[in-house]
Design brief:
- The chain is mostly helical and 433 residues long.
- It is globular and about 60 Å long.
């Protein structure tokens, strides 16, 4: 097998295990903590606040992560980052309010390290012809985490009351999976060129790496893409932490709405995997049309999905368990169908963002991915903060407005890049003639 593709597959498997643990926990964190509070009234940890803290420190850490990667390289950075995820999951063995928020801070900083390292490592193992394929392959493997972890939750949460023994079992299994992911990170091989030669670590000091990250914010393409990044952060928080909780809190959606939370996560994962495989395997055929048609497809899918969610779930579902009626009679089948569409639409945006960053900013991939994750995590943190205070309908309105803006700016960026490429080709032809 091509060594570069092998490295991408190895990277994807490591992330799959780490995020099988974390994404599953993030999807059910509110449900678990509410059960903990019922058993222990002194515990007052809040899942939305925990996730908001994670993404706040994720955002802040992205300004430091390029400097760390410049010093120790992307592989060791991802090892350190993966162990912070293990620490966060292990904190659920003994739920304490201060420990929950402390572990959230540590994991937020670790997330900035692991994701910036991932973007850098993926770019080093890719070129203009393989970046779209590798992004799709990595994304499909990563999102298998949604499938496996949530299937376990679907089977484990078979009772409306989540007992302490069930919570302990979930924590043990997720910790073991995250630990396996950490081992995969430890075993990652160095990035290689197309000829199979080890790619040397870029000679950039910590200060230079920080300066590059700041200077990228002045480039027109990056400024425009940041609007798209911001939208992906909002919808990430919605499908990973809010939507499943809304389903679980809608008591008249089924006999056991809590079990639908895990099933929703499974369908989100299937949608993500389908999109990743589709756009990865067909990248050679879709490349001639550009990246913007795929983003436009994701936009249409998401807008239609938000409308269906508006009809199917009550406005109060993000805030409390409710028997309120929705616009239509709440349907579990429609809810999990929307889960699939949320995942598929998200893959449309993210696979093309990865491909765009890896080609437009290939020489500055670490700071470019840091800016991406900074903007995305700022949006996610803001969304988790307001998710605890406003109803579903306003949240959907915010998602629709930012989806429009993010899609327009991505297409605008693609137009600028194509114009530059055409101008460069014309200059080369004139020079040769």
């Amino acid at each position: 097998m091509d060594k570069r593709l092998f490295n991408v597959l190895h990277l994807g498997l490591g992330f799959m295990f780490v995020f099988t643990a974390f994404q599953t926990l993030g999807n059910i964190e509110r449900t678990i903590l509410e059960s903990v509070t019922k058993d222990d009234p002194s515990f007052n940890g809040n899942a939305y606040i925990s996730l908001a803290v994670i993404y706040t420190f994720f955002a802040l850490g992205n300004w430091l992560s390029p400097s760390l990667i410049a010093s120790i390289g992307p592989r060791m950075s991802m090892v350190i980052g993966s162990f912070t995820y293990l620490l966060f999951i292990a904190s659920f063995f003994k739920p304490m309010t201060w420990l929950l928020y402390f572990a959230s801070v540590i994991m937020g900083l670790g997330a900035s390290i692991i994701w910036t390292g991932q973007g850098n490592y993926l770019t080093l193992n890719s070129d203009d012809t393989t970046m779209s394929r590798n992004s799709g392959v990595f994304w499909a493997l990563l999102q298998c985490s949604m499938l496996f972890g949530n299937f376990f939750v679907y089977m484990a949460f078979n009772d409306p009351v989540i007992e302490q023994s069930t919570r302990l079992l979930v924590t043990i299994v997720l910790s073991a999976l995250c630990g396996l992911g950490c081992i995969f990170m430890l075993l990652l091989r160095p990035a290689v060129s197309a000829s199979g030669i080890v790619v040397p670590q870029r000679n950039a000091g910590p200060i230079q790496a920080f300066v590059e990250a700041v200077s990228l914010m002045r480039q027109k393409e990056m400024v425009l893409l940041c609007v798209t990044f911001f939208y992906t952060g909002l919808e990430l928080s919605f499908f990973s932490g809010v939507y499943g909780s809304c389903i679980g809190a809608t008591l008249n959606i089924s006999d056991n709405p809590k079990q639908l939370v895990g099933l929703s996560g499974i369908l989100i994962g299937i949608g993500e995997i389908a999109g990743g495989l589709l756009f990865g395997l067909l990248s050679s055929k879709t490349a001639r049309f550009g990246r913007d048609p795929i983003v436009l497809l994701g936009f249409v899918v998401h807008i239609a999905t938000y409308f269906c969610i508006f009809l199917n779930l009550p406005d109060s579902s993000p805030l409390k368990e409710t028997t309120d009626n929705a616009i239509i009679k709440s349907s579990g089948y429609l809810a999990i169908a929307c889960s699939f569409l949320l995942g598929f639409g998200d893959s449309c945006f993210n696979t093309q963002i990865y491909a765009a960053i890896g080609t437009i900013f290939s020489e500055e991939s670490a700071p470019a991915f840091a800016v991406f994750k900074f903007t995305q995590s700022i949006a996610a943190a803001a969304a988790f903060f307001y998710s605890n205070a406003i109803g579903l309908y306003i949240q959907l309105g915010i998602l629709i407005a930012t989806a429009v803006l993010g899609t327009v700016t991505f297409c605008w960026t693609e137009r600028i890049v194509r114009r530059k490429d055409h101008s460069s080709d014309s200059d080369r032809i004139q020079l040769l003639s």
